[in-house]
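Possible regression after last week's pipeline update?

I re-ran a chain I had predicted before the update to compare outputs. Posting the input and the new output here so someone can diff against the archived version. Not blocking, just want to make sure nothing changed silently.
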Amino acid sequence: MQIRPTKRTELELIQYIYDEAREYMRENGNDQQWVNGYPSNDLLIHDIKEGSSYVCVDGAEIVGVFTFTIGEDATYQKIYHGEWLNDAQYGVVHRLGSLQSQKGIGAFCLNWCFQQIPNIKIDTHEDNIPMQKLLVKNGYHKCGTIYVNDGTPRVAFQKTAHH
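New output (post-update):
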């Protein structure tokens, strides 16, 4: 598998992956995350233009998609019921989705991000148990609660090389 920037022509393919991920979340008791058409085509096009959207490719097939940036995330400035492991520069992973036909995609994407900068912050919905298990299994520590732009809470995690 390899990671590369998403191409504008791949919008339909990555939206299919998000649809499949959304369905998987619903089947696993998480019907509150990625609702009302989120992530929208406009948001995904913005991510692609900004250069923060990446795909995980296995052979010729796109099997995963996520956004990755290095730098401040406004929703991570305040954390409740805990604290971040450190205040050093960090990478942020959002909107990680993968096809269910193959295991290990999420871990591969997370490991690629950690190779770019060994200090990663990420959040997920409290009902997204499969994602929380994936994060813990890959060395992420539960740090507390953050609130996203619509005011809803998310479980915040961080992984750093110095912890």
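Follow-up from reviewer: compared with the archived run. The first strand starts at residue 2 and ends at 5. Marking as no regression found.
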